[in-house]
Each structure stands twice: as structure tokens, then as C-alpha cells.
Amino acid sequence: MAARRKGANLTHVSTSSRPNEMLEPEVHARQHAHVRKAHETELIEDYVELIADLSDAKGEARAVEIARRMDVRQATVSKMLRRLQERGLVTSEPYRAVFLTDQGRSMAEESRARHAVVLEFLRAIGVPEEAALQDAEGVEHHVSDETLDAMRRFLRQPDTD
Fold it and tell me: What domains are there in the chain, each with its CATH number?
């Protein structure tokens, strides 16, 4: 990440392959819009993926277990579950288990698949296991379809060592 200097024009930091080249405003805006959209869905995908994991492992997902695994209060989980219900991703009743809808299950599977590719890619390029696990958790939400396809192609290449 580029160092920030007092008074530095931050539109120059690491946004171009040439350090002193300024991106066109439309390109710059498009990049930031993509990141904002990814941030918006990141937490939702994390919850949906965790609910899928708990459902698959235990047959159900309960708010108390979600809170424990996300390291948040149950009130935070309740608020998020309302958001997920509004989006049609989960069904639940007060004091009962949470279940994914077909749409929620689909989102969880897509997120799991992206995560698996990113993690395998990071391992393949030599990223240490702990860092790969941590980084894959964030990158999976921000990676474009084009980059994910490139990672898949890279992983299918025969080992040249």
C-alpha cells in the first residue's frame, strides 16, 4: 500500500501501473463504485455462508451460535437476520433456528466456490497458510469474475518445476 504523505494527492496512490499517471475520472469512479458494492454485500455473504456451514454441520443455525462464531452480540445477529429476511435469503421465527432460502443457499454456494478458488490460488503462489486463510476471507468478496477466471486458469496449468 502506498505511503500517505501530508498534502499528497491521494488520487495518485496505486491506482495506475505508472506512479505519476492520473486515471480518468470515470475509471477512478468505476473502481470505487465496485469496491463500495463489494463492501455492501461482504457481511451479508459472510453471514449466509456461516448459516450454510452450520446448517450443513448441525442441521440448523441458531442465532447464539452465529453470534459466537462471528464474535458479535446476539442483538447484532438479530439485526442482520432481519436484513437477510428482507432480502429473501433466510427464514426464521423468534427463538427458533435460521434456515436459508433457495436464494440464500445459492449465494452461500457461490461465496464458498469463490473462497475455495482464491484460497487455492494464494496457496499455489506460496502465500503462507495463515495469511492465505485470512486473505481469502476478504478477497473472495472483492474479486471480479475476470480475475477469478484467471485464477482458475492459473490453477489448471501444469506445474513447471
Answer: 25-156 (1.10.10.10)
